Structures are given as C-alpha cells and as structure tokens.
Amino acid sequence: MSEDPPRTEGELRAEVLRVAQAVHAAGLVVGTAGNISGRLPGRDAVCMTPSSLPYETMTLDDLVVVDLDGAVIDGTGSPSSEKALHLECYKRYPEVGGVIHSHATYASMFAVARQPIPAAIEEVVVYIGGDIPVCEFTPTGTDELGVEVAAHLGDRSAALMANHGLVCVGKSPDDALHASLVVERTAEIVHGARALGEPGTIPEKSQQNYAGVYTFVRENMWK
Hints:
This protein has 223 residues and is an alpha+beta fold. It has helices spanning 9-25, 83-92, 105-113, 122-128, 143-150, 173-196, 204-221; strands at 35-39, 45-48, 64-67, 72-74, 98-102, 134-135, 158-161, 165-170. It has a single domain (9-221), classed as 3-Layer(aba) Sandwich (L-fuculose-1-phosphate Aldolase). Strands 4-3-2-1-5-8-7-6 form an eight-stranded mixed beta sheet, sandwiched between helices.
C-alpha cells in the first residue's frame, strides 16, 4: 500500500506537484494533458493542477485551490478544465483523497475500443477492486461527465472514459498514482496476452476474496 496521506496542507500541495510530475515522467500524459488533485486536510477544498501548464515547469505557486463548488479560493491560475470530474469524486466519496485523470496509452486503447480492462491479474482486484469499467461517452469538461464517471467508482479505484482516457482515485494522490500505474500495466499485459490467445480468468472465489481485501482497505484505511 502507498504511504499515509499527508498531515498538513503544505505536504498535500507538495504531493500534488510531485505526483503530477511523476505522472508526466511515467508517460501517462503528454504535454499538458491530464490533471491531478488532492483533498486538503481538514478543509472542504481541493488542490489541483492548473489548466494548460507544462508539468516540467510547474511549481507549487502554480497549483490552484478550489472549494467543492469549484470556486477558486487560492491561486492565480485557472483550475483544470476537468475540475467537475474531480469534485464529483470528492463530494460523492468522503474517503477519496486523491484523483488522477490521465491519457495512459494502453488504458486509452481500451477506452477507445469501449472495452473494460479485465482483472486478469490478482493485484488488480486487490488494488483496484475488479475489472475496470467503461463509462458512457460524455463530453469533456461537463458536470455530466463528473457524475457519469463518479458513479462507476463506488467499489473501484479506476474507470475508463469512453474515447478519452483513465480516471483513478485513492486515499491520496500517491495512492491514485499507484492505481494508475497498476491499471496501465494490466492493460498492456492483457493487450499482449490477447495476441497470444484468450487470457485466462481468475477463479470467482479468489476474485471475491481479493475484492474483500480491497473493500476492507477502502473502508478502513482511506481515512
């Protein structure tokens, strides 16, 4: 499991920036695409990456803080155009402390094909909760997109946005990054396995047991 969520606002801001740059370095986004956020401790507010700013040159001063209604309360830049997507996840799930929207290559292949990513590897069930579902196509940057995506994240840490990309949640930005990497690695493995034949499936009983681990962690450790 990832490290505990930060205890101070300064630590959270630093984590959002570090995770944003890690997302870019890992190739999960290109240019200024994607967006990263974290719930500020003890406040009904969210720190997120700004719109249209390169990750390589982004600084702590560039990050934007918004309330749960989307109003800017700190920062001079514009919050991500996908702020509604992030805020809906935080409003619907109080345990969520980090959200990442990325355009990870293999995960996006499944999103474009509108195919769920099967939980063909045990760690996917443990860390993500099961198969990664595909949301209905909804226009980018709309409140409706936030509602559609968040509806798929009640018992999962990841969902695919049809013809778009990937959204992952976690107890912290670090945790959401780990989920993003697990999903992208699994998507690549499944893509390759299908070239060899039909991938095998994890027995239903084992799936249930691993899903129980995910549920326990989310309900008891995402605090």
